[in-house]
Specification:
Length: 237
């Protein structure tokens, strides 16, 4: 026989998984749950602690227990895939919105990110990724013009990787990635549906061709409650 707090945990979890309790809403207060289940505060807190530990709720000081979205999208950290390849697994739930496409002279930061000189021009591509009618990814790409001499709106709306590999005959080989959590910027708030979130997960990609030439720097800014960043690791000896 399970301890009472386990039974309460399972009942609340079942309601979250079944959609009876929606993500983005708050659970009843500890006092209300005590009354509902006729148990002590300690028992309720154990149930809530278990829900929080397993990623189903987030305790918000002064507000209560916020139900998290358990149907997150898997974002592969190790693999180098295009958004189009990820989107193909999501049926018709995805839309790309092209915000900006222009050829620019790089500033000092972009010169550093791409390891190029001031004389080399760069394609700047800004795209919003809308999934299930919510704007949850802001992609900012910087691509060396000397390697990719032409970019069009159609290419950016479809797949830049596909164009580079199939259109230009180049082989994209590997990327160095950096994942951080940062405060949302004014740009994030302008382009993304952040709701009450004030943080974004930032994935920086330094992408190389098979000849080890760095040709693209990408900064993908994600709404954190919509993604689960996954990896596979093997212990080496």
């Amino acid at each position: 026989m399970h301890a009472k707090y386990i039974s309460i945990y399972k009942e609340i979890l079942s309601k979250i998984e079944g959609g009876e309790i929606s993500s983005g809403t708050f659970l009843p207060s500890e006092s209300e749950l005590m009354k509902k289940y006729d148990v002590s505060r300690d028992t309720i807190r154990k149930s809530l602690d278990l829900l929080a530990k397993n990623g189903f709720i987030e305790k918000v000081k002064g507000k209560g227990s916020l139900v998290l979205d358990i149907h997150k999208l898997d974002f592969p950290v190790s693999n180098l895939v295009s958004f189009k390849e990820l989107a193909e697994k999501m049926d018709n739930r995805v839309q790309t919105i092209l915000v900006d496409l222009e050829l620019i002279s790089p500033d000092k930061q972009i010169m550093k990110d791409l390891n190029i000189s001031k004389e080399e021009n760069v394609w700047k591509v800004i795209r919003i990724r809308e999934i299930d009618k919510e704007k949850i990814i802001l992609d900012k790409d910087y691509i060396v013009e000397g390697i990719v001499p032409d970019l069009t709106k159609d290419i950016c709306m479809d797949s830049i990787y596909e164009y580079v590999e199939e259109g230009l005959g180049l082989q994209i080989s590997f990327a160095k990635k950096e994942v951080t959590v940062q405060n949302a910027t004014k740009e994030d708030r302008k382009y993304l549906d952040l709701d009450d979130s004030d943080m974004v997960v930032v994935v920086k990609n330094y992408v190389y061709l098979s000849n080890a030439i760095l040709f693209q720097y990408t900064e993908s800014r994600h709404r954190p409650d919509k993604f689960r960043f996954v990896d596979f690791a093997r212990r080496g000896y």
